[in-house]
Amino acid sequence: MTVDVILILVVLGTFVGFVAGLLGVGGGGILVPTLSSLFFYLDFPAEKIVHLSLGTSMAAIVVTSISSMRAHQARGAVDWPTVRYMAIGVLFGTFAATFLVAALKSIYLAGFFAAFMTFVSFQMWRPLKLSGSKASSHSELVGAGAGIGGISALVSIGGGSLTVPYLSWRGFELKRAVGTSAAMGLPIAIVGTIGYLVNGWGETDLSQHIIGYIYWPAVLVISCCTVLTAPIGVRVAHKLPVPVLRKIFAVLLISIALKMLYTVITSDV
To answer: Residue 201: which residues within 8 A CB-CB, separation 6 or more?
Structure first.
């Protein structure tokens, strides 16, 4: 990697870690489109750039998820019985979705990503207020986990934008829903990373430090930065008007998602 690429990744990782701590998101919404632009700049194979962006983002989320999970567990905010059953579905849904990713063209992946990020942006701007009772069956939790894991693997996120609304709808207090979601992000990230490794194994290029659908130098730099800045974001979250920041972030998310879609369309992949 050249010095300018390293600096870009340092800035990206620093920003993603801060935003993850500030707003409680995994950072995939920022990582995927930004990495896509970077990989175009590095002249990686155009037809695999979106796949590489998704896989690299998923791998980078692993370290962030561990840090987040430990912080929430220290505050007793993780409902482990719920995590156990949902994780069963997550393992299946996440891994299965990576096979679908490998079979889809970049344009379809970029389109789905842009559409999903638009949904997340609206959730950031004005979160849905749902109410319900706690899930009464283990099978429902397994099924919900499978769906959340599958969509998370398709767009390379930790799943918080889906898990938190679901658990809130099922009667979880918000802090406990966020904490439980943070714990769910780890199996999603680990299984998703394994899936992107397995399904992209034929695309491995050791000369470019690419194994599977993952560009490992980017994972290393981004992970180091997110671990350092995520705690800062958590502290700032208690001092700034987070509702306003959520709206700003919503506009940012949809803007970069649409930019990614435009880049893929104009590159004819």
So the answer is: 211, 212
pLDDT at 205: 92
* Residues 6 or more apart in contact with residue 249 via CB below 8 angstroms: 19, 23, 25, 124
3-state SS, the chain, equals CCHHHHHHHHHHHHHHHHHHHHHCCCCHHHHHHHHHHHHHHCCCCHHHHHHHHHHHHHHHHHHHHHHHHHHHHHCCCCCHHHHHHHHHHHHHHHHHHHHHHHHCCHHHHHHHHHHHHHHHHHHHHCCCCCCCCCCCCHHHHHHHHHHHHHHHHHHCCCCHHHHHHHHHHCCCCHHHHHHHHHHHHHHHHHHHHHHHHHHCHHHCEHHHCEECCEEHHHHHHHHHHHHHHHHHHHHHHCCCCHHHHHHHHHHHHHHHHHHHHHHHHHCCC
Q: Domain locations in the chain?
A: 17-266
Do 168 and 177 form a contact (C-beta atoms < 8 A)?
yes
Residue showing tokens 């995590």: 83
pLDDT tens digits along 124-149: 777 666 555 665 588 899 999 999 99
